[in-house]
Specification:
This protein is an alpha/beta fold. It contains 10 helices and 15 strands. 29% of the residues lie in helices and 24% in strands. The strands form 3 sheets. A 7-stranded mixed β-sheet has the order 11-10-9-12-13-15-14, sandwiched between helices. The protein has a 6-stranded mixed β-sheet with strand order 2-1-3-4-5-6, with helices on one face. The protein has a two-stranded antiparallel ribbon with strand order 7-8. The termini are far apart. 43% of the residues are buried. The structure holds S-adenosyl-L-homocysteine. The site of S-adenosyl-L-homocysteine has 18 residues, from α6 and β10.
Length: 386
């Protein structure tokens, strides 16, 4: 019997079926994907998790005060700017939640104020905790309104004494009035400024602002499917577009002749280059550029590409990118998507330029969340005559 029960479900609104059944949640997602994508072919059954709880390796808690002035932390209530005060969430890593609850309980004694959304005064805006699934390493990012943290040394000392898995603590300065959690500047105040994790047998370094999939167990399944669909033999030239810290490209490199990884975020590219070295990978090049612009250059230089992986943000790819695909003409495309609607739009475009959708595999990366939060791996192949 499932003894997990979320008392915040209604207020939070993030997990529709959290107090019902996981099976129902999976069916809801499968139906949605089928409605959107059945025009392209058969949809495989969504791959769910055996233990669909506590999977989020990245936990972000927003800090504030309640009406009585008590410090609170948690997520915003659905469609509002009101914070739900909670110490535990059934989909978040439990160790991360313990760290956040501890920080909340000691802020006062360290004279660390919390940011007030209305007056714009106060220091601590968010605490972001990243946990590495395989190595157990933990990163704590304190998102502050200014770079100066009172009692910094004592605070960090207390934190790492209590939680020995914490390997690094970073201050992220965010003094802007936007809904973005992280600002641009990171100040490393403990450890190396990054953590390391093992994924698909490879080692990856992860910095505070680099993208890293939030459910490591399902990521291994997702990448496994992507690489299986690509059917690499060791002879192919491969592109990994929107490559983040190089995870897909590095995992594919064992089975390819050479790989180009292209990614826009410089911090992620720095991680990716280090990750190439860590794994002794010699056949992967990492490029910091807009994926569309990169494709234009590659097409101008008449670069050869046999297999294209693309894993864009939720908004999907762009017309420029897809137009260049029709010039570069890879034999296969493996599209990894976290946005089913943009995926449907882009698949239509790929069909127009002569590709056929061969396989569609949804993977539940975010159990219990809304139906559009599904990862889907699609295999496309170039039609023979074009
Ligand atoms: N494949 C990686 C990252 C996927 S997330 C993984 O599985 O971990 C999408 C990535 O696209 C992010 O790292 C983001 O920084 C990057 N990105 C966003 N817009 C981009 C663009 N126009 N060109 C290249 N990369 C972009």
């Amino acid at each position: 019997m499932n003894t997990n029960r979320c008392d915040y479900a209604k207020k939070c609104g993030g997990c529709r079926f959290i107090n019902e059944s996981y099976q129902k949640s999976l069916e809801y997602k499968q139906d949605y994907i089928c409605k959107l994508l059945k025009q392209f072919g058969r949809i495989e059954d969504i791959i769910g998790m055996e233990q669909p709880y506590f999977y989020r390796n990245k936990v972000n808690a927003t800090f504030g005060r309640d009406r009585k002035g008590n410090i609170i932390s948690g997520q915003y209530m659905e469609n509002t700017h009101k914070i739900i005060d909670k110490n535990r969430c059934l989909i978040e890593d439990e160790y991360a939640d313990e760290i956040i609850a501890y920080i909340k309980s000691v802020l006062k004694s360290f004279k660390i104020t919390v940011f007030d959304d209305r007056t714009k005064y106060g220091l601590l805006r968010h605490v972001l905790v990243r946990t590495a699934h395989e190595t157990g390493e933990v990163m704590v990012v304190l998102v502050l309104n200014s770079p100066v943290l009172p009692s910094k040394n004592n605070f960090v000392k207390a934190l790492v004494k209590k939680f020995d898995r914490i390997k690094t603590v970073v201050i992220n300065v965010n003094d802007r009035q936007t809904s973005m959690v992280l600002g641009k500047r990171n100040i490393n105040i403990y450890g190396k400024g990054y953590i390391e994790d093992i994924l698909c047998g490879k080692c990856f370094r992860i910095s505070p602002t680099s993208f890293y999939q939030i459910n490591s167990m399902q990521t291994e399944i997702l990448y496994g499917k992507a690489i299986e669909f690509a059917g690499l033999t060791g002879k192919e030239s491969v592109f990994d577009a929107y490559s983040g810290i190089g995870t897909i490209g590095i995992c594919a490199s064992d089975h390819a002749k050479n790989v180009y990884c292209v990614e826009l975020n410089p911090e992620a590219v720095r991680d990716a280059k280090e990750n190439g070295k860590r794994n002794g990978v010699k056949n992967v090049r990492f490029v910091c550029d807009d994926a569309g612009k990169f494709m234009v250059k590659m097409a101008q230089d008449k670069e050869k590409v046999d297999v294209l992986f693309l894993d864009p943000p939720r908004s999907g790819s762009t017309n420029i990118f897809i137009r260049q695909v029709s010039v570069l003409r890879p034999r296969k495309i493996v599209y990894v998507s976290c946005g089913p609607e943009s995926l449907a739009r882009d698949l239509k475009m790929f069909q127009k330029i002569g590709y056929q959708v061969k396989k569609i595999q949804p993977v539940d990366m975010f159990p219990f969340t809304e139906r559009e939060h599904v990862e889907t791996v699609c295999l496309l192949s170039r039609k023979a005559q074009v």
